[in-house]
Model the fold of this input.
Amino acid sequence: MNALRVAVLVLACSVWSCSSASRPRVLSQVEAARDAPAAREAASLAPQAFARAEQLRQRSLRAFDEGDRGGAQILGEHALAAYSRAVILTRLVKAQHELARAKKRLVKAQSELGTLDEQLARLSAEADDLELRVKVARDAEPLAPNAPSTPERERARRAAAVALASQGRLLCSAASMLDARRPTLTDAMTRLDALDKQLASKSGPAPIDDATRLRSGCLRELSEVRRRSAKDGGIADALLAELSQPGTLFPFRDDRGVVVTLRDLFAADQLKPEAQERLALLGRVARAHPQFPLLVVFHAAGAVASFEPRRSEVIVGALRKAGAARVETRNAGTALPVVESKRKGAAERNERVEIIFVSPA
Done:
């Protein structure tokens, strides 16, 4: 009887030992994955995925307790994969949070950049205004009268006076396009007409002093018109940047506004295709910026003007067809050459059309 009892005890111990030793290894791996810091973090950031992993872990343990070692193995592997998925989802949630914070920082940086751009535009406009005021003040300083000189010097003075008178007329024309009712402009134009007659007569000393004063007066008129404008001074910079984008117009700024110079526009009496494209582009830009009236200035290459009224009408018509609402023309003749007429290639350089976006501010 005692021997039988001992045999039963030995058999029971053997069964218990085999059962303990046969616990699937994956269950230990599941417990380790559950206790990892990343899994604890997943419990708060990916709670549904973590709960699913917990459910599979409990089912695997229950299967093992019920003696289903194969089921425990399979459910344990599923639980291990579920914990890994929860960790991956946690990383994804953290990445999304970081992305949201980065977007907020980007929006803030863009806002700060926009503020800086506005400040830069305002400071640039103020600098332009100060520069113009200095120029007007400098030109308004009393000049030492030029005494009559040698015939050669008088010819040079007369050529300079013609250029100054032409510049003055264009400046006053620009001011008139911005404020045609300004009474002082009428007086300035009347004096310019008288000066042109004096220059055409070619008698007596060259009126270089009168030409200088009139140009300075027209620049002052334009400056006063702009100073009274409520428009932002940075709009001319924005327009210059826009016209620079195509890379074929090469605009620049001067006292009148933003200038685009065009050459070789016609084949016989017809606009060349590339000329039509450029004029259409300029017309569309003028339509988009109606605060900038267009002043079209024709420059001749020689004593005989190359731009007949008919060609002028063709150019103005192309601009208006594309949307330019306010267009006026002036013929500067040969008063403002780019290079001396005697130099090689001077005709191609001097014969040109200036499309001026008259800056209102």
The CA atoms of residues 53 and 83 lie 5 Å apart. The longest helix spans residues 69-140. The two ends are 120 Å apart (CA to CA).
